[in-house]
Each structure stands twice: as C-alpha cells, then as structure tokens.
Amino acid sequence: MGTSTRTLNIGIIGFGPFAQFLAKTMTKQGHFIRATSRSDHSGHPAVHFYRNMEEFIGLEHDVILICTSIVSISDVVKSIPFHCLKKPVLFADVLSVKEHPRQLLLQEVPEDSDLVCTHPMFGPESGKDGWKNLPFMYERVRVRNETLCSSFLAIFEHEGCKMLEMSCEEHDRLASQSQFLTHTIGRILSEMEVTHTPIDTKGFEKLVQVKESTTRDSFDLYSGLFIHNRFAKQQLKNLESALQRVKVTLETTMDKQDGHKCEN
Ligand SMILES: NC(=O)c1ccc[n+]([C@@H]2O[C@H](COP(=O)([O-])OP(=O)(O)OC[C@H]3O[C@@H](n4cnc5c(N)ncnc54)[C@H](OP(=O)(O)O)[C@@H]3O)[C@@H](O)[C@H]2O)c1
Fold this sequence. Notes:
Elements: E1 9-13, H1 17-28, E2 32-36, E3 48-50, H2 53-57, E4 63-66, H3 73-78, E5 90-93, H4 99-108, E6 114-120, E7 135-142, H5 146-158, E8 162-165, H6 168-177, H7 179-191, H8 202-216, H9 219-227, H10 232-263
Parallel strand pairs: 1-2, 1-4, 2-3, 4-5, 5-6, 7-8
Antiparallel strand pairs: 6-7
Bound molecules: NADP nicotinamide-adenine-dinucleotide phosphate.
NADP nicotinamide-adenine-dinucleotide phosphate is lined by residues 14-19, 37-39, 67-70, 72, 75-76, 94-96, 120, 123, 217-218, 220-221.
C-alpha cells in the first residue's frame, strides 16, 4: 500500500473516549477534525464540535468517521441526514466488531460514497505511548477513490501500525477468540474481586492487569462484543465447557488419590 499524505477534513460521529484518543493523533498529524455526539463536548481543545447533526453533515468533509458504541450504531447511522452531504465522502468506522457495521453501512450509506471498515486493535491505554507495531485491521468495503482511502489509512501507517487487510467476517471470527475471550476473563476476574497480594507471581500480575484494562472499557463496549459478533456465543460455550472439563479432571484425580489412601 502506498503512503499518500494529504491533509484531511475528518468529521467524527460519536466523541467518546476512543474518538478523543484518535483525534489527538489526527490533529497532531495536521488533519482538521470536527465532531458531533450525543453529549456536548464543545469545550474539547482538539476539535470543532457541532451539536446539530444536520449542520455537521452539511460541512465540507473528506472522511466521516463513525466512533459510536457498538450497541448504538444502528440508531446513530439511521439518524444521519445523508441528504445534507455536500459531496460523496469516505465513510469509515472503528467499531470493535466488524460484520455488523459493514452490513449496516452498506445498507444506509449513499451509493456514491465510499466505505472502509476498520478496527484499530488498541486503545487509550495500550496506545498511550504511540501506535508503533500495534495491529490495525481494515477492509476496503467499497472504494473507488483510492487516493482518499489511502490518505485515511496513512494516518495509521505513519504512526507505525501493523496494517492488516482482512475481511470483516475473518476479523469477527478471530476477535471472538482473542478480544472477546480476554474481556470475558477480565469481567470474570472482576466479579471474583481478584486483586494484588503481597506474594503475586508474574502470571498473576498479568491476570490483574487483564482485569483492570478490560473493566476500564465501558460495559456497552463489552456487551457489544457479544451481541454483535455472531462467533462470540460459541466462544462463551467453549469457555463454560472447558471450565467444566478442568473441574471434572481435578475431581477425578482427587477421587483417585482418596481411593489410593483407602487401599493403603
Ligand atoms: N476503547 C477502545 O479501546 C476501543 C478500541 C478500538 C475500537 N473501539 C470502538 O470505538 C467505539 C467507541 O468506543 P469508546 O471506548 O469510546 O466507548 P463506547 O462506550 O463503546 O462508545 C462511546 C461512544 O458512543 C456514543 N453513544 C453511546 N450510546 C449512544 C446513543 N444511544 N446514541 C448516540 N451515541 C451514543 C457516546 O456518545 P457521547 O459521548 O456523546 O455520550 C460515545 O461517543 C466503539 O465502537 C468501540 O468498539 C474502542
């Protein structure tokens, strides 16, 4: 992929923690960022904030970047006044599930606008010291303006991300085993109120880290990983049955030991 550099007018829909994190780097690279959101973020130093969606959509954008929660994207996209667009743009999203926004955006975004679905596989915590070597997944779903799409992807390329082009389906299959499982383990550890002890092993320290980093994300994000990734349900079943098998192995071993003791 070529690295074309161009200053972009980027309009962000959904200005929560992740969008604010992305906007910082985009602004640093010289891009012009505007945003709109459900809540009022007008005091934010990195962006020009618009409360009115119609006014926002009617501005000169090159890219409209959708950063809302997974569980709200359907309502948000369906409420976009597409008729206010000045010209065809590149629509992009950063949701942590991919088949769901792909299908929705293909259905709702006007035919003359392009579409790229992406997932930066990092967040405000893991990416706080830079994005070098952090994976960035994307699928060019409907791209005719190659220069514009390359300029948008170059934002991540220039920060040193590991660029991974793959289908949204493949992403969701892999992410159900990696991201959803990590978040589920983190939430289980949190339910168990797992916390540091004076005799922590390195392995245990990592477990506490998993608990802390996953529970820092919103519950909307976590539940979205389950509700809108069709592969996640099977992973949850796999986790339950694996726990059951481990339990049975332990109990059988204990029974055998007790049996030996009785024989002696
Ligand atoms: N956090 C990460 O590390 C990370 C990494 C990669 C991708 N992502 C993806 O980035 C997106 C944003 O993530 P996040 O961490 O910022 O938190 P989030 O809780 O997933 O989403 C928060 C955003 O969704 C908006 N929102 C929530 N409910 C809404 C509703 N009913 N109507 C309209 N807007 C609504 C919020 O708007 P207001 O702020 O206006 O309330 C805010 O902009 C998600 O799709 C997530 O999967 C996150």
